[in-house]
Queue: 3 jobs
Job 1
Amino acid sequence: MPPGTGDTQLTISQQVILDGVVIVSTPQDIALVDARKGTNMFKKVDVPILGMVQNMSLFVCPNCQHKTHIFGKDGVIKTSQEMGIDYLGDIPLDANICELSDLGKPIVVTKPDSFNSECYKEIAKKVMSKVGLKFD
């Protein structure tokens, strides 16, 4: 869910039966403030927190392969540890993810063997395991 007042998240948690939620945040402190608020709200309404995902965790230059932590490093990892929530993985900052998603062609479908797809699949496996599903 997008950051904000939490009204949307609260309404969904009251009107839909949820197996749990995944908290997604970028690693910078200001984003983690909203992630903490969302986590606490879901805890108050007894919705299980399945884990946290660190979005836009790392940018790898497509030309020189230099790695840069544009939004900070490991903020979600530290927050998940502090809050006692499982850390599910990282999603890198990559133009392909954005471009393909905007076209309605997720990277896990269009480039299933790519590094980015593997990141999503590893997170999906963890989430599926937590809700009792198997990954084929």
Job 2
Amino acid sequence: MSLADRLRAALALPPPPDLLPGDLVEGMVGDPVAAAVLVAITRRAEPGVLLTVRREHMRTHAGQIAFPGGRVDAEDRDSAAAALREAEEEIGLPRAAVALWGTADPYRTITGYHVVPVLGEVDADLPLQPHEHEVADLFEAPLAFLLDPANQHRMSADFQGARRQYYEINWEGRRIWGATAAMLVNLSRRLAA
């Protein structure tokens, strides 16, 4: 069974006990904002994952590597619809080009979002067009590399007066960290369960 097939099958299993729930910051009030991201896995012998680099002028997470995604809007039927809409807006990925697999474990970000990862498969080498005002770059990283625990490094930094833990994955000079890395860690833990 291929890695992609194993990952798709793992979505149907109960969540393992060691999942990362998210970043809970002291003093944060109110309900988190519903959001969704698309974990687009390319259909090829060695599948990859499509990732974006956010533009430096963005209000939040400027310059960071992320999955395409964003807030769940009122017109979105569910998380999957939001993830597909955002991927179409951000990277020009047609909604009909994604074969949805399902959703993975939600993650709460330090900025107050409750993010649902939506997994789906896309053809390799689609002619995608990053949104010029939101996305500085679009690239594909190998799924096997991203899900290998040996490449997922636990780090720490001071934030808002406390020492915080986070994960980081470095691939070909690209630093994938924070919520994006945490969601990949959760996917690898699902595979291992």
Job 3
Amino acid sequence: MNALEPGTVVTLRVDRDAPFGYFLTNGEEDVLLHTNEIIDEIDPDDDVTVFLFQDHQGRLAASMKIPTVQIGSYDWVEVVEIKHELGAFVNIGINKDILVSKDDLHEVWDLWPEPGDKLYVTLRTDKNGRLFGKPATEDVIRSISKPATRKDFNKNITGTVYRLLMLGSFMISEEGFLGFIHESQRTREPRMGEKVQGRIIDVKEDGTVNVSLLGRGHEIMGDDADKIFQYMESRGGAMPFWDKSSPDDISARFDMSKAAFKRALGKLMKEGKVYQEEGWTYFKKE
């Protein structure tokens, strides 16, 4: 008879009850089914299908809540807690959260998932039989993906980041598209497990896509125009910058290129909100 192992689903017989639940058995080993892990009424000598895990004392325990994540199977799970000395704890659907070891996370803490982020994981045990979550490999992610087509070009896309590299981030979209976000197509590096929104800027022959997290041109220009307008408001409606200001001065004050500054300033002028005069820009009076 096979030994009972955490991370697996087995059918056991109810052996005896206890003040805090029932003891189940396979004829050789007993395991506690705690009251908190019971979802249906059971009677003595019933056969019960349960998921095995370790309780907070490290003892083998059972749950009638069968998670989709098991040893050999994968699913998305939510991060519920971060402990930098250990890793990320995830909720797999039972009353005990499972640890994804820091060894399986990025070396930079700022790129670790945060509570509410999602990871695609399976379960594994270490040499001491302790149960851990294990993020999916690239091959596993590819096995659940589907190819995009040229018709998907320029579409908005939402997905979850699952892999981080020096040059960019990999995501899988809600449709199942595999996407790559080059470092030039983002304003900051997203976290592992973070949900991101962008648009498809290229569809490759293999059906994978390149994704930009930057806004479309008119959206970016609108954000830049808002930044300039808010700065002018803080100065009473005038600023010592105009479309002939130096690129270095513009970058230092607004953190944008001169080309972007001129586009945004042109938008404000076209809307009749500002005008330029002798090196300054002013609000137009109503």
